[in-house]
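Hi P.,

Sorry for the delay on this. The queue was packed all week, but I finally got your sequence through. Input first:
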Amino acid sequence: MSDVKADQRFGTGPLSRAAALIYTLLTVELLLLVTSAPGLAGLILLDRHASNVPLAALCLLPLGPALSASLYALRHRRRELTDLKPGVAFWRGYKANAGGALKIWAPWLVWLTVVGTILGNFSAAGVPGWWAVLLVVFAAVSTLWVGNALVITSLFAFRAVDVARLAAYSLGRFPGATLANLCLLIVAGGVTLVATEMVLVLLGSVLAAALLWNARPMIAEVQQRFTA
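Then the structure:
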């Protein structure tokens, strides 16, 4: 009887759960890097110049499905050390959601390309200075929107247009989550300015976990109101 109870307790304690979380994050991070490696290799070779903004966006295209699969794997992760299959969950999410993620991710990258190109050549555009502030605000809002959209399309089976509407609706419906994601965005922007984009990619699974944590109210409402 004592052996049975010991077996039941194994892998369920605080240290085991922490180890399970770390293992899951590391596995998801590795798979994220593998699935987005072709684009990341090109991104490393690009200089930070306005003329390279379209190429940078093209290099970031594979990252969308990879982030979606990461969100799926983290959402469906097991808590027990003896029952971990993050790799299986990642590939299941990647196969199921890659197309839906690209329908959200690609238009967002196109929008950021336009904004980045304009800001990179702002002095030659001949427009008022407040346009730059407006463009930055629009870019930030669209980034908050794409974060919500990736979470929704990774966890639920909705049409792209419905995902887009729910993501936009959630920005105002859950101001706490939106503010938390804004703080996450500011930190990510600061890391990119101080270091490189690759640092963010190396923290991809951690950022995905934080995004998923912030999205808990949104996920709960989508489950209750928009799924059977």
